[in-house]
Amino acid sequence: MLLIPTQLAGLATSLMLCAGLAPAWAQAPPTALTVQVSKPGAPIAKTMYGLFFEDINFAADGGLYPELVKNKSFETDDRLLGWKAIRGAAALAAYVVSSDRPIGNTNSHFLRLTANTASPDAGFINDGFRGMGVQQEAEYTFSVYLRRGPGNVAGLNVELEEPGRRANGGEAATPDRVLARTRIADLSSEWKKYSVVLRPSATAAHARLKLTLDGAGTLDLDVVSLFPKATWKNRENGLRTDLVQLLRDMQPGFLRFPGGCIVEGMTLDNRYQWKSTIGDVATRQPLMNRWNKEFKWRFTPDYYQSFGLGFFEYFQLSEDIGAEPVPILNVGMACQYNSAELAPIGRANGPSAPETHPADEPTLETFIQDALDLIEFANGPASSPWGARRVAMGHPAPFNLKYIGIGNEQWGPQYLERYEPFSKAVKTKYPAINIVASAGPSPDGPLFDAATKRMRELKAEVLDEHYYARPEWFRQNVGRYDNYPTTGTKIFAGEYAAQTAAIASSENKNSWDAAISEAAFMTGLERNADKVVMASYAPLFAHVDAWQWTPDLIWFDNLKAYGTPNYYVQKLFSTNKGTTMLPVQCAAGAKNGADNLFSSAVADDATGDIVVKLVNYSPEARPVSINLQGVKKLGKAGKATVLASADLNAVNSLEQPLNVAPKEGGFKVTSANVAYTLAPNSFTVLRIPGKR
């Protein structure tokens, strides 16, 4: 690329600022900061910065879980969701979703195809999740259960093809392109599983699977799967490698799952039930995703949960990326924004509870028992019923679960009266488990205050606070936790993200303005490490062609993924969290954030570094003087990581994934007074070798 003189000057200035230098025109009196190295504060919790996962925006099916076939077992409410007959079934005499002698009770539907004459169009196509992303020469395992019926069907033709472009009138402008093909023969009159490997001849982001009968007659199909062999750790039911790598690179302290409102469901029948998500993948029954019709302007009726990514896989993922698992369980309440349906409480457990209820209706005790069974599944020995289920799935060792969330984002007296018996039952059987309680969906107000007061009285270990607000709210509330109690219940900033427009709007961007404002707020979290022990941005993932909510931390399509500026803010905090908080004093007793300069500091005993985080929310370069008060020994070379953009509206994209990304440089350390110049609109992490 040819750089014109002004671009060269800008590049030179940027490099100088990354190195802690500044051109003469950028010099100004330095702002003085004092880091009290000899007066360390609270330890930084290992769980301080983590991940919030929810199956929204096609985050699981079509995203982290890389099964390419949608509705592979014909078990969704719309039995043929994701499937369409070739040329309107003109070559088929009949097709039907049948339950005549199925594979099993939990997989009771299959597709029956009948052709009177042989035809290359006698079959069905599956488009996957907004297409199927396949890589040239990569290996994909195709598997299917087949049963031959009357007639002379000799086999099943399997093709992976890239659809041709269509002209305005719908006519083919370019032909479909076959990427891989094979034929399955040796059919049986009883159900039999077949597996073959497909190797696409080219890369395609929107391929599709085409299945046709070889011959005339009837053939039954079920559990149709196309799964990449290259998964995280090469597991048979593994996860998408590039997405897991982005998570692992963050070095998260915890993974909260499976949500989010997904936990609650629109109704209790639609709630997430963890027991339905373990065991043989082929027997896990799909469920309508509660986000498929939440927003009329993002109506997504084809959004279901297959549960191929279930609770066992969540625990396994937590282990893989070094994160504490934090499962959140339903407390007997459907989403209060939807039906607000309640599971009844026995009269002994609550004065407002009904005495009787239908025999098949779940009560609060049902939900409590699910929680107790989950802890046994995660931590129990092989001799326990649920521990044995974990062992049978291939994980003999316990997952060492330490946290469990009771309710997602519930509020009001109905939540409080359910929480208390739920918490008591868990603590009675598993006193070492830390309970995460809900403060509701808002960061203030009477309901928030009531929940906070009651949860502290009940001695909940962690209280989950949520806030989605404009970028300026995050800068203005950097001192939110300065006056919180230092004893008792700790804080989990469980869901937060700066909003540049209305929530779920296409104009709500992952801009640098949003990200740098979150960085400013996070210095306040770090300064209050004696009160805040967990924090996570939300939501985590979004498919560029199938999202329901904005903004999101990581975006992807069927082939590629990128981290937003917000992702890099989270990553820089997490990978530089240190071990002990160090108090930071601003000049003349100013508060953190005065004149739009935000700061926090930690000691990293593992590396021997003092880590100072600085946010300059200003269009001008800003020199700072950092007094490392009480430091015993200093190295001579520091490391600076700078995340900056002159354009507060800058974003990353699939085409420009590193438009706003960290840049590393060095700077000299000559004394305990460290001089550094912050770039305009920047978040800077300084690592200074020094003993305390």
| CATH fold field value of the largest domain | TIM Barrel
Count of folded domains: 3
The number of helices is: 10
Question: CATH superfamily name of the largest domain?
Answer: Glycosidases
Low-confidence stretches: 1-15, 17-26, 347-357
Radius of gyration: 28 Å
CATH class of the largest domain: Alpha Beta
Helicity range: 10-25%
Give the helix/strand class: alpha+beta
Q: Widest sheet: strand order?
A: 2-14-17-18-19-20-21-22
Q: Oligomeric state of the chains?
A: single chain
Number of strands: 35
The portion of residues forming beta strands comes to 25-35%
Overall form: globular
Distance between the termini: 47 Å
The mean pLDDT is 93
| Main sheet overview | 8 strands, parallel
Per CATH, the architecture of the largest domain is Alpha-Beta Barrel
InterPro entries: Alpha-L-AF_C, ASD1_cat, GH, Glyco_hydro_b, Glycosyl_Hydrolase_51
Keywords: Glycoprotein, Hydrolase, Signal
EC number: 3.2.1.55
Catalytic activity: Hydrolysis of terminal non-reducing alpha-L-arabinofuranoside residues in alpha-L-arabinosides
Tell me what you see in this structure:
There is one protein chain. By secondary structure, this protein is an alpha+beta fold. The chain folds into 3 domains: 5-44 and 580-691, Immunoglobulin-like; 51-66 and 232-575, Alpha-Beta Barrel (TIM Barrel), CATH 3.20.20.80; 83-228, Galactose-binding domain-like (Jelly Rolls). The chain is 17% helix and 29% strand. The chain contains 10 helices and 35 strands. The strands form 7 sheets. The chain has an 8-stranded parallel sheet with strand order 2-14-17-18-19-20-21-22. Strands 26, 28, 29, 31, 32, 33 and 35 form a 7-stranded antiparallel sheet that branches. A hairpin with a 4-residue loop joins β28 and β29. α9 (512-527) packs parallel to α10 (565-575). The longest helix is centred in the middle third of the chain and has 17 residues, at 413-429. The chain is globular and about 90 Å long. The relative contact order is 0.14.
